[in-house]
Amino acid sequence: MDLLKKIKNNWIKKFSYPFIIAGPCSAENEKQIINITKKLNKSYVEVLRAGIWKPRTKPGMFEGNGEEGLKWLVKAKKLYNILLATEVANKEHIKLALKYNIDILWIGARSTCNPFTIQEISDSLKNSNKIILIKNPLNLDIDLWKGAIERLIRNNIKNIGIIHRGFTIYKNYKYRNQPCWLEVLKLKEKYPNIPIICDPSHISGNSKYIYEISKKAINYGYDGLMIEIHDNPKEALSDAQQQITPKKLTEILSKILLNKPIIKKYLNYLDIYRTNINEIDENILHLLKNRFLSSYEIGKIKNKYKIDILQKNIMLKQKENYKNISKKLNLNERLIQKIFDKIQKESIKMQLKS
Ligand code: PEP
Ligand code: MN
To answer: Of all protein residues, whose CA lies closest to atom 3 belonging to ligand 1?
Structure first.
C-alpha cells in the first residue's frame, strides 16, 4: 500500500487561496521582525516566516539568532495576530519551536537530502498535529522527497505539505535553483491531497524573477507561495539578492491575483511542456557558450605550444562518439551529424580567434 495515498489533508482549507507565507530569510533583530510584520499586507499574508537557525554554505557567516529570535516572533504574533513559521533541522530546534508555539515548521532542502536528519525530525514530532512543510531535496531525487514525506506519515504526522524551491542541477544558469515543474506536477498529480507551495525566492535567487515564478506556480495550480521579504533587502544578513520589500510583495500578489488563473489540466500540461522545452533550449544555449569558451582556451594553449589548430583525427573521433551516442538515444543520426559539423566549424573559428 502506498502510504502517501493515505494522506487526507484538510489543513490548507482553513487558509485562504492562495496560501501566502512571507517574511525575512532570517530573524535578524527584534526591530526588523516587528517592522516587517507591521508592513505585511494582512489581506494576502497569513503566516510570517523567519529563519532562526540558518544553514549556511560556509562557516563564519551569520547563522541565525536561535532562541532569542523566537521571542521576537512571538512578540510580532501577539502584536499583529499572525501565524508563525520557521525552519527546524534537529530535535533541539523542534523542542524550542514547540516551546514557543510556532504554528508551522518547515524542513529545509539540505535536511530533506539526509534520511538520518529526517528520521530524527520525524521521531521528535511523533503524533504531532503541527503543520509540517517539506522542501524538496537539493538534488533532483523525487524519491528522496517522497521518502521524507513517508517517514513523517509513519510517525502519524498528518498535516503535511510540500515546498518546491528548485534543484541544484548541472550548472544552474538563469535561476539559483532550477525549478522542475514537470516532475513536481507529476508528484502532485499522484498525491493530490498533499498541498503544494512554491518558494520563488530560493528558486530565483534574484528579486527580479519573483513575479514570473510566482505567476507560473499559481497558473500550474499550486496552493500557495512562500516569499522572502525584508524591509531593507540590500542590507539583509542572508539571501540579500532575492528578498523584496513588503510593498513589492503586495504589488506582485495583486498583479497575479488580478487575473484569477483558469485551472484546466490539459492547459497546464500543454503549458508546462512548453516551459520545459524553453528551459531546455536555454540550457542548450548556455552549454554552447561554454563549449565555445573552452575552444577559445584550447586555441590559446595551441598557440603557446605551436600546435596545429586543425586536428582532424580528434574531430573524427568526436564525430564517431556522437554518432554512437545518437544511435543509443534513438536520435536522428544525420541530423546530429549536421549539427555537430556546424558546431565544430564554429569551435575552430574560436580557436583561430584566440
Ligand atoms: C530558507 O528558507 O531560508 C532556506 C534556507 O531555504 P532552503 O532550505 O530552500 O535553501
Ligand atoms: Mn533564505
So the answer is: 25
The best mutation among 57, 134, 135 to test binding of ligand 1, ranked by most ligand atoms within 8 Å of the C-beta, falls on 135
Residue 287: C-alpha distances to residues 173, 218, 291, 331, 339 (Å): 10, 30, 6, 19, 14
Three cell numbers written together for 227? 516569499
pTM for this model (two decimals): 0.90
Q: What tens digit of pLDDT does each residue of 196-221 get?
A: 999 999 999 999 999 999 999 998 88
Nearest ligand atom owner, CA of 138: 1
Protein residue with least CA distance to atom 4, ligand 1: 108
Closest ligand relative to 226 C-alpha: 1
In testing the pocket of ligand 1, which one of 49, 165, 197, 201 has its CB within 8 Å of the most ligand atoms? 165
